[in-house]
Design a protein that fits this description.
heterodimer; A: alpha+beta; PmbA/TldD fold; 2 domains; 9 helices; B: 8-stranded antiparallel sheet; 11 helices; 21 strands
Chain lengths: ~475, ~450
Amino acid sequence: MNKLKNTEIKKYKLFFKKLVDEMSQYGHYSQVLFLHKIKNVIQKDDKETDSYQLEDFGVKLRLFTGEHFLEYGTSLFDQKLLKKEAAKLAKRANKIKVKNPLKIPKEDKFLDKNFSTKSIRDPRRLSLKSKIKLLEDIHGKVSGKSKTIINTRAVYSEYFETKIFVSEDRALYQDISGCRLIVMPIVQTQLGEIRYHFEGFFEPGCEVFDLKPKQIKDIVHKANKVAEATKIKSGKYTVIMSPEVAGLLAHESFGHGFEADTLFKGRAKAEEYLGKEIASEQVSILDNPSLEGRNGSYFFDDEGQLANETYLIKNGIVKSPITDMYSAIRLNKERTANGRLESFDHKPYSRMSNTYFAPGNEKKESMLSSVRDGFYLHYSSGGMEDPKGWGVQIQGVLAERIFNGKLTGEFFYEVGITGFLPEILINIQGVGKKLEVKGAGSCGKGHKEWVRVSEGGPHLKVKNLDLA
Amino acid sequence: MGIRENALSVLKKTKGIDFKVIEKEVNRANLYYTKDQQLESSLQANRKIVEVTIYKKCGDKLGKHTFPLVTDVKKDINEKIKDAISMCSLTKHKTFEIPKKVSKVKVKIADPDIVAAFKKNNIEDKLKRFALRLINEFESYKNEAKLNSFEVFTSHINTKIENSCGLKQSSEETGAYIELVVTAFINGRENEFYPRVNLRRLNEFKIKEAVQEYCRTAKDVLISYRPNKFKGSVILTGEAIREFFAPELSLNPLVMHCFSKLKYKDMSRYTKGEYVTNKPIIGDKLTIISNPLVDYNTGSREFDGDGIPAKKLTLIDEGRFKNYIAEKQYADYLDQEPSGPLGVIEIKPGMRSMSQVYSSKKQVYEIVSFSSFVPNELSGDFAAEIRLGYMVERGRKIPFKGGMFTGNVFDLFSNAFFSREMIKLAGYCGPKSLRFENATVAGMG
């Protein structure tokens, strides 16, 4: 997909402004969101190479009656149809009488901006043939490299996302790209059980292919360890969380409970903690779509709010929620750039972007050496939110035993983390120095409304963590 | 001429290729109610998806590439096809045959009421009436529970498949999805229950009965305790048994290993005729049937992604693996007939009554709802947080919330018992309850 030229962007913006004018003819706040996403996927395993493309294209018209939104979405880019639908929304809204209409705040000055992702190796400039070759090369370095590996999947995917947002006070354009690489050796245990190890990588461009020999070696090593890993004895342990697991804790367990739409509905236990201490001073959690070149990055959200960072917890104190437009007005909270939608035929909700623990002062090595008997948590396959109860579910964790301050090479497969979130946060005893935000996945609200996100943090030391 | 028609016209003129074209027209109407039943948003949308797959022989291999089309301009379609043909030379598949003309099967998966409402353009009114009835029903429980917020989603989907070997299929289906947050309160304390219901027909949602059950469940969540570690008999009922066999975000590993694609890639642990469990079976022997032909079930469909018609298929029979679910490509590789799509998971009932399933001299744990059951599809391991369960002892049931049900499905079914009473839910038809012996709940204390 080629980037739009400036003249094309201008033309689109002008047309969408006309639609906004049509919708706001009776004085209602209105907006238009155009989106075009392309995703190319190449998969290679020991048996075959496969490729496909996905595309999402459509326009959303949205109008606020002063009480609720009326929304229309279509994949048909037909100017006449869009004008007709814009007029229909305006007429429908005009028939709705609202006693005390809520107002959407406007900028004094019209904001007209274009944004674009920067990458080291622009994926548009590299042919698919070259990408297949690079993928085959990585696959070949892992496949069959140990007798426990029975197949190896390597998946490369790239996305190109164009969005144009126009309302009465702004006309914004963004072009975002991202490249993901997953390497997944499938292993068979001595008892015949089939397991897998996976490593995911994300970069804004094809630099994602630049794996170092040490990284490849580590993938094969961990695959072997997964094949011989045993089950953990459930109990409370002192752990060192890798940045990946720390990020998942920040995202699933805390972040979801601090989404303003959930908060507005009175569904979030976080409400009881607003402005209060929930962890030690060294603990801070942020959501930040403006973090450059990460999977959850963007320049403005799907309701036209420019990206900014939000402290969810700052120095142990629960701060501000992330907001979408509707919840921010209802709760009288500051707008953050977190109004996001899956596609033009979905509604925006308060959603996370890049969510992570802020770095602290400790070295990973000194944190490790302080653990007499515990576990290092390498990665996890996912988790689930429980904003009202703040119960924690993180599953599919690969854990390695720490004994006398050293990693022992003894691995445990499919470990689960459970517990009550405030107890886990208060038990954070150490926060590492180095921030890593490497997550390359998607996040749903419950079981739907998928958006791309990332998560991370430094290493964390947590005592009394329930592992099962 | 639309995108599909133009694509077909260009594809038919392109020499040396085979192709498949899938068109989906999706209409949606959704209502979103926030706190105190205030309407937050009313959304209507339509989407047309045209997806083309090109197959091209490249030496002794078959190239395959799939791409979407969002334009009906023939010049652009031509360009996309050219790109796809060059991609075919880079992808490498063992050859297989493109499916030819097939028979058609019919299953009721479209709600005439939803279809008519979309056609008459009065779906929003229909949803508002439904919402009002739901809100009113909660009035009877206002001193103990409330409908915090809810969302109602409806869709009407028309699908057409056509390929270069004469296969043509079409289907019409509807969907209704209701997501509710029910909050129970007592003495200034509150907690919630978060049911999600997937249906083909909106009027299948029995408002009175559902509201009664949700309020009762939310009250149980409110008075629940946090469990300690438990090892013993664990019973799954209600949504938990459905989610166990037909999880929303993944497949049950018992089913996952039935896919021929996995077998071809040396990743399936099953061998035909052999037991699927890790240890010898001392409980009820598990029988799993895939049935895509259950009327109005969300797990039903008329054909798979290649247009192969749906059929009922026994996957696991009395504990032993029987048949693969096979799309055409992998069916050819394993030298078998393609199976059509995976359908509703049907589990054969056991001999025990519900009361026998619960019967125990010792304490048993019953789980009725998970936060989310996402097992490791290959290894069968799982660790799922419990949203609501009951500690059952001498006929008394005490609710608990939290802790994790952990284990491995291939271990658990060596000692499991099913009830003879049956239940039909979205994607699942089978016993109302399932009891695992020697199971583990990791506690929080």
